[in-house]
Amino acid sequence: MTTTVLDVPNDVSTSAADALSTDTLLFRDLPLSDEVQLAVQMTGYLSPTDVQAQIIPHVLDGRDVLAQSQTGTGKTAAFALPILSRLEMNGPTAPQVLVLAPTRELATQVAESFKTYGACMPKLRIAAIYGGSDYEPQLRALRKGVHVVVGTPGRVLDHIKRGTLSLDSIRCLVLDEADEMLNMGFLEDVEFVLQNTPAEKQIALFSATMPHQIRRIADQHLKEPATVTIGRKAGLTADSIEQRCVFVNEGDKPEMLARMLEAEETDGVIVFTKTKDSTVAVADRLCALGLSAAALNGDLPQARRQRTVDQLKSGHLNILVATDVAARGLDVQRISHVFNYDLPHDSESYVHRIGRTGRAGRSGVAVIFLTFRQRGKLRLIERATNQPIAVVEPPRTREINLKRIERFKAQMIEILGGGDLSLFKKMVEEVAAETQQPMEMVAAAAAKLARGDQPLLVSDLPKSASFDSPRGDRRERGPRDDRGERGGREFRSDFGSNRDGGGGAGRRSSGPPRQGMERYKIEVGRDDGVRPANIVGAIANEAGISGSDIGSIDIRGNYSTIDLPEGMPKDVFQLLQKTWVSGKQLRIKLCNASNGYSAAGHDGAEAAGRPFKKFKSPPPYVKSKKSKKKS
């Protein structure tokens, strides 16, 4: 059940806002264009969601909109349908609409939605532009002319400063998941776009939360906006999502996950881990147990990531093991379960994670694994989401074993019912005669042989101390675990902070790089007006790495230094050399041991006084198709 708060001034009483009506509102009741109405019919949708019913009329009227809604409420259609209905298709093909999204996954998803809803508009042209991918296809699309541009702030800013994207004809600007763009350091890029678009334009701002920076942007740039809040009575998370907590020893998490996947009736599943390496480790473990699983992280090339998501949507893949960044904007309706394998960084990450299930009116289950030392976090999560989370016992060993026995028997019965078994029957009879063993013993040996090295039954897991601790007995914990409670800090204070020095954007790099990092010089500095957030945003997008993988940044007059993980691939290095930040190319160079710079660039690492190091596991970079082609 949702609670809707809508600010509708009296002066729109005779406008499209009159389309707001009762629970029986249908898409055909909304004054969308004929082409868009036909496309909606083709998708099979009949009734708009709350956020769509509230927002579509205002966007059709050309009003600015400030919308606060949680993930999974259908906000993409809320702005895409009316925007497409208002497009001018007879004039020159210049960008009329710009949609900014925090990640390439979300940008791709929004662009695909525009194509779906514009399927009956043959002249419609849409371009998705985002970091970590080849510039050339994006340049070709922009040169041909487009009506709608969907992109990430960093890459959009690059195209603007290169002169390959003009904002002169922009009539509508959409800021999608504005709070996430703020968290990723794109605030200044967003403000640059706002200041360089025509004064007379429509703005639609969507955000799950409304921190003061987002409020300030809305106050400064939106003109008498219609304010729509789609909230939840019970809190930040959907009522259709059943939340559970399981206490488990850290080393038993892989086995616990596998057992819960066996015990639960699941459809599509997303497992969230904290690091990219752990996505691969967990996915490999599940595959070894015969489950259909794959990893999704920033190391994967974009084409493979998209292929993996498509397989999950189609049902050819059942389990996706992902990081928060990689799964941002992921919209797969068949997700029945979300597992928080690792503790999320903060409350917003938790809400976004579990929002991947319970979509489009379906029910879903969200499970979080906590160790005994983390039991104090459970109350923080409940306080942040304003919903109780049930502490449940893990599946019992007996329950798992009974299910396995029933499955194995069902497989045997299926084999008995089909196919020619005469050869195997003869072999069993011969073995029974030769060994003087009863026929059932020989059949048992054959069944064991078929099972191979994989044991049929499981043993009890070591019992976690937390299983003996009643839910209400949270007071008996050590001082370290109580910091979040006594200090009254928000969820973020204890979750996922990079105490090892990662993500240190803005800190002075006075000492040498920490272990596993290398220092680079970039040709942009304080004189160019650059700030740490600009650098982090550009490098994170182009190199395909998380901001938490970026180390210290030291901004000087006409240059800066930045610490990045060892093992940067050559193609990523070449791409970063040509990346634009604050109107200048980075021209990145590797610092040598005596604080000089390698004139030969990345290939001169050994000549610069330090041999090029290889990671035992892949470094957190995504290779660029363009650089690979040119290198």
Description of the molecule:
This protein is α/β, with parallel strands linked by helices. It has 4 domains: 231 residues, Rossmann fold, CATH 3.40.50; 154 residues, Rossmann fold; 54 residues, no CATH class; 114 residues, RRM (RNA recognition motif) domain (Alpha-Beta Plaits), CATH 3.30.70. It contains 21 helices and 21 strands. The termini are far apart.
What is the name of the CATH architecture of the largest domain? 3-Layer(aba) Sandwich
Query: What general form does the structure show?
Result: globular
Q: Which strand order do you get reading across the main beta sheet?
A: 1-8-2-7-6-3-5-4
Helix content: 25-40%
Mean pLDDT: 78
Major sheet: 8 strands, mixed
What is the CATH homologous superfamily assignment of the largest domain?
A: P-loop containing nucleotide triphosphate hydrolases
Structural class: alpha/beta
The CATH class of the largest domain turns out to be Alpha Beta
According to DSSP, the number of beta strands is 21
**Count the helices. How many?**
21
Radius of gyration: 28 Å
The rounded distance between the terminal residues' Cα atoms is 55 Å
Strand content: 15-25%
CATH T-level fold name of the largest domain: Rossmann fold
Low-pLDDT ranges: 1-22, 232-236, 464-509, 593-618, 623-631
